Each structure stands twice: as structure tokens, then as C-alpha cells.
Amino acid sequence: MNVVTNLQTTNNSMEQFYQELLKSPELQAKLKQASDPESLCQLAVQLGNEMGYSFTIEQVRAAMAIEVAIGGDVIEESNLSTGTPTAAYTAVCK
């Protein structure tokens, strides 16, 4: 597989995981257990892998950074502990 194909496959995996996240309150609840952005990234990768998706922590971080850059909220511990999803939080795998 070449680099472009790998990126497309990863993007598809992240998008599919994100679509599952939008539909699943159970999955959302699992991600809300994260106490900080780094553990959120790790948990997203772990849950994604368990569901058959393949992406890395670095790719999740990049997706979150893009969301913040285009106007999403910054993830803070207060956002995570209140269970209030922010744009960046909900777009963790977009």
C-alpha cells in the first residue's frame, strides 16, 4: 500500500469511527471517562481498534488540532468532567 492509500484508509477508519461515535451513547460515555486530552486520544485509538478501525494517537491529535483551528473548542479537563461535549471533543475521530 502506498502512502496516499494508507492515508485514505486511515481517514476512512477515523470517519467511520466518528459516525459510530455519533450514534452510540455507550461509546460516547466511554470516551467521557477520559480525564485529559491525551487519555482521550489513547482511549479513542483503543476503542477504535476494538471495533476494527485503524488509526494512531498522532492522527487523533491531528484531527483534534484541525477542529480547534477551524473554530472548535479547546478540550479542557472541565469540559471532560462535566460531560459537556465540545466541538473538538466530539470530533475526536473526524
Number of helices: 6
- Helices and strands, in N-to-C order? HHHHHH
Task: Tell me how many strands there are.
Answer: 0
Uncertain segments are 1-7, 74-94
Output the structural class.
Answer: mainly alpha
Biggest sheet: strands, sense, closure? none
The residue-averaged pLDDT reads: 73
Number of domains: 1
Q: Report the span from N to C terminus.
A: 23 Å
From the alpha carbons, calculate the radius of gyration and give it in angstroms.
Answer: 13 Å
The helix content, as a percent range, equals: 55-70%
Tell me what portion of residues adopts beta-strand conformation.
under 5%
The geometry reads as globular
Domain Nif11: 13-58
Protein name: Nif11-like leader peptide family natural product
Pfam families: Nif11
How would you sum up this structure, described in words?
This is Nif11-like leader peptide family natural product. The protein has one domain. The chain has helices at about 5-25, 25-30, 35-50, 55-70, 75-80, 85-90. The chain has about 90 residues and is an all-alpha fold. It is built from six helices and no strands.
